[in-house]
Amino acid sequence: MFDWLLPEDHAIALLKKDHDTVKNLFEQFEKAETVSAKEKIVEQALTELRIHAVLEEEIFYPTVRRHVGGKIMNEADEEHHVAKVLIAELDSSTVKNDHRDAKFTVLAESVRHHIKEEEDQMLPKVKELDIDFKALGQRMLDRKKELLKNGIPSDPEHALIAKAGRNVDSPAAAAARRKTATGRTKTATARAASTRSRAKR
Ligand SMILES: [Fe+2]
Q1: Which residues surround ligand 1, an ion (CB under 5 A)?
Q2: How far is the CA of 119 from the centre of ligand 1 (A)?
Q3: Rounded distance from Cα 68 to ligand 1 centre (Å)
Q4: CA nearest 139: which of 50, 39, 63, 82?
Q5: Nearest-CA neighbor of 39 among 112, 122, 100, 108?
Q6: What is the pLDDT of residue 34?
Q7: 42-91, pLDDT tens digit by residue?
Q8: How far is the CA of 167 from the centre of ligand 1 (A)?
Q9: So where are the chain's domains?
């Protein structure tokens, strides 16, 4: 349970504040009733999450990795990767996609789980470190300012989804496409067999 009182410019306090912001957006999404209200929240949450991930991956994680240990840090890395795939899919889809709400809901569930692990397992270990947490926090704030001014750099997950194009949609849509393709192959095979048998006669 995370209930430490820290100065607001402490690196851990900054992360905790970001966590609370996105959790609050997830709750707002669950209560939102109109498409436009939901879209506003999705857009804001995706930006918050992308900035938060850059700050952790570039600054916070490398600083604490050795002390926290590979097991917890690698799991956190993988959770970022999965979240970023979903973020990239949401960035590349539109409101017309009937899985958009579901995709954002799964992203929210997965990020809530990630936040809980960070707050219950990673951050208590980080707190033991004898480092200048205010200086670390300042580096994070400076980077955040830069990202807000110049934009968030694209990541490999966005490149992956862009390359896959519309083929990465949903398992249901992919199965339907497979079924149509199998149907077409069967028809073509049957047509070829009947042509062969007519030729023999
Ligand atoms: Fe994280």
Answers
A1: 56
A2: 10
A3: 14
A4: 63
A5: 100
A6: 94
A7: 999 999 999 999 999 999 999 999 999 999 999 999 999 999 999 999 99
A8: 28
A9: 11-169, 171-201
